[in-house]
Design goal:
Elements: E1 11-15, H1 26-34, E2 37-40, H2 46-49, E3 57-60, H3 72-84, E4 89-93, H4 103-112, E5 117-120, H5 125-133, E6 145-150, E7 169-174, H6 180-189, E8 197-202, E9 210-215, E10 229-233, E11 245-246, H7 255-268
Parallel strand pairs: 1-4, 1-5, 2-3, 2-4, 6-7, 9-11
Antiparallel strand pairs: 7-10, 8-9, 8-10
Length: about 270
């Protein structure tokens, strides 16, 4: 699949899925095996990187919260230069490249420079997280639509036009970050009931995966989850297994809980 002399190689924008090599598509494995050079995200798991043949050049071009190792523009420049030299290039992205993967920017750069490309879909985090929690993202009675939301927005986009988005919906927040208190306030201010179920899923489909059950009211009490993580908000979350960890604020019980506790203590002294 390496390009002929004088012709550019092909760039494969490839989804690595949630982390388990067993969830890679057959096509993704094919292009990894035939690559000359791979540019991968930080969140691509070591298990998947281990599938890349030893002779292939592997470059981590990951960008995460905090200081950036590399700019998006430089990533695109590296892909174009590698393809122009006739090499087969795999741009390996966690999840699916078309869901919060900045794929449109990379597609535009490849088109501008006349580089042939193919998009290889992957299992996106929302599906992997729902599978880990053993719930459906949709339900005929409570959730006729799924809304995928990035909780990490560019500086120019600071507000979200919620409207009635949350009605009859499952909301899936990618990259929820560590400040879930801010998100809790935003959800409540937009009219969502504090008792609506939430599921925080960390490292879905990996051996370290964890599912924490909570509600909007208690979101702020959750500890920071290991990346990659995802937050599912909606009625379908109530169907998650009861033995998943229940995340609630032990330091700040509700007024009703305190009254009940005091009542139980007073009865115990009789």
């Amino acid at each position: 699949m390496t390009g002929y002399a004088g012709l550019p190689g092909t760039v494969y924008l490839t989804g690595a899925g949630p982390g388990s090599a067993k969830l890679l598509t057959v096509r993704a494995v094919e292009v990894l095996k035939s690559a000359d050079i791979v540019f991968h995200d930080d969140l691509v798991s070591p298990e998947i990187l281990a599938l890349i043949p030893a002779h292939v050049a592997v470059n981590n071009v990951g960008k995460r919260c905090g200081p950036k190792k590399i700019s998006q523009e430089l990533i695109q420049e590296k892909m174009v230069l590698a393809a122009r030299s006739g090499r087969t290039v795999v741009r390996l992205k966690a999840g699916d490249p078309l869901v919060f993967g900045r794929a449109q920017e990379e597609i535009a750069a490849l088109r501008k420079n006349g580089i042939p490309f193919e998009v290889v879909p992957g299992v996106t985090a929302a599906c992997a997280a729902a599978a880990a929690a053993e719930i459906s993202l949709t339900d005929r009675e409570t959730a006729s639509k799924v809304v995928l939301i990035s909780n990490h927005q560019c500086a120019e986009k600071r507000t979200r036009p919620w409207g009635k988005t949350f009605e009859d919906s499952t909301l899936v927040f990618y990259m929820p970050g560590g400040d879930l208190e801010s998100l809790r306030q935003e959800l409540l201010e937009n009219g969502m009931d504090g008792t609506i179920p939430c599921l925080l899923i960390s490292q879905a489909a990996r051996p370290q995966q964890e599912v924490i059950r909570t509600t909007i009211r208690d979101l702020g009490a959750l500890p920071r989850a290991a990346a990659p993580s995802l937050l599912i908000v909606g009625a379908t979350g109530a169907e998650a297994r009861s033995d998943f960890h229940l995340g609630r604020s032990e330091q700040a019980p509700s007024r009703e809980e305190m009254i009940l506790e005091l009542s139980e203590e007073s009865h115990g002294t009789d």
